[in-house]
Amino acid sequence: MKIESFFDTQSNTFSYVVSCEETKQCAIIDSVKNYDPASGRTDTQCADDVIEYIEKNDFNLQWILETHIHADHLSAAPYIKDKLGGKTGIGSHIGDIQKIFKALLAEDDFKTDGRQFDHRFEDGEKFKIGNLNAHVIHTPGHTPACITFVIEDAVFVGDTLFMPDSGTARCDFPGGDAKTLYNSIKKILSLPEDYRIFICHDYGSSQRNQVANITTVKEEKEKNIHVGNNICEDDFVRMRSERDSTLKMPFLMIPSVQVNMRAGAMPPVEKNGIRYIKIPVDVL
Ligand SMILES: N[C@@H](CCC(=O)N[C@@H](CS)C(=O)NCC(=O)O)C(=O)O
Ligand SMILES: [Fe+2]
After folding, report:
1. Using a 6 Å cutoff on CB, does residue 240 contact ligand 1?
2. Lower CB count within 10 Å: N or C terminus of the chain?
3. How far is the CA of 154 from the centre of ligand 1 (A)?
4. Which among 70, 170, 239, 241 is the best mutation to test ligand 1's pocket, defined by most ligand atoms within 8 Å of the CB?
5. Of all atoms in ligand 1, which is nearest to the CA of residue 250?
6. Which is the closest atom of ligand 1 to the Cα of 251?
7. 75 located within any domain
8. CB 169 near ligand 1, within 6 Å
9. Is the CB of 163 under 6 A from ligand 1?
């Protein structure tokens, strides 16, 4: 198994390509399409870097996976699928979050059964990337539909855990819940201690100048500033709620959710042939 990391400096997101060296099959986890809300223009540089890596290595793209409906960047899934093929996949609770944003955005025709994605992964579902063994753990809390991919000894936790010195993800998005996140994190921390954890965002920390993205179950268990050292549920929920009340909405929250709930597709064209992203006023 080979794992390549890609970092988007606009949203501080790590995307991954996980490949099976025997079969040359691969999966992308959490791709990024850049977006400038001032001009409404998208940019595919991040996704192109991933595509170039896959093509250069002669890999065949089997899966385009999302750990959750991201609220801080647009997914590049349809762009990548168009170039390389592959099946898109997300957690089976996707409908819960689609319903929330359908109501918020008054998208009457939008279907909330997750059909926009090729596959919806159930909790515990097993799948393959070439000869690599993978399975899914339902890890809600940051959003109701978050999942973690365990691929051999590599754990792609999305936004549940961050690096040990950075803690955990926020729980104040619609449908988020700190108690639920605490219990999801417990599931991740019960994996073997030597399993590697690959995180989805890093915003740096006071203790290091550079971003980082790889740790282990053991390190998170011992050193994570929000959940390490057996912090109890009540203390976690109190800390998380206090911290969340200080955080601003992500810069790209509104564009991200309405594109990502469509598996990365833009909203449908209007009569003039143009696609629009809506902004709900005085709601969020
Ligand atoms: N400043 C970033 C914040 C992004 C953000 O809120 N990230 C979420 C994950 S999608 C989070 O959990 N952040 C935790 C934190 O900022 O402490 C932005 O505007 O994009
Ligand atoms: Fe997130």
Report:
1. no
2. C
3. 23
4. 170
5. 19
6. 19
7. yes
8. yes
9. no
Q: Is residue 186 part of a domain?
A: yes
Structure tokens at 273: 């042939």
Domain assignment present for 163: yes
What is the rounded CA–CA span in Å between residue 99 and residue 30?
22
The number of folded domains in the chain is 1
pLDDT digits (tens, 9 = 90+) for 63-99: 999 999 999 999 999 999 999 999 999 999 999 999 9
Residues with CB under 5 A from ligand 2 (ion): 159
* Structural domain for 70, as ranges: 2-249
| Ligand 1 neighbourhood includes 247 CB (under 6 angstroms) | yes
CA distance 81 to 58: 16
* pLDDT tens-digit readout, 223-277: 999 999 889 999 999 999 999 999 999 999 999 999 999 999 999 999 999 999 9
- Measured in angstroms, how far is the CA atom of residue 243 from the centroid of ligand 1? 12
Record the tokens describing residue 263, joined without a space: 């598996």
Protein residue closest via CA to atom 4 of ligand 1: 250
Residue 267: inside a domain:
no
pLDDT digits (tens, 9 = 90+) for 120-178: 999 999 999 999 999 999 999 999 999 999 999 999 999 999 999 999 999 999 999 99
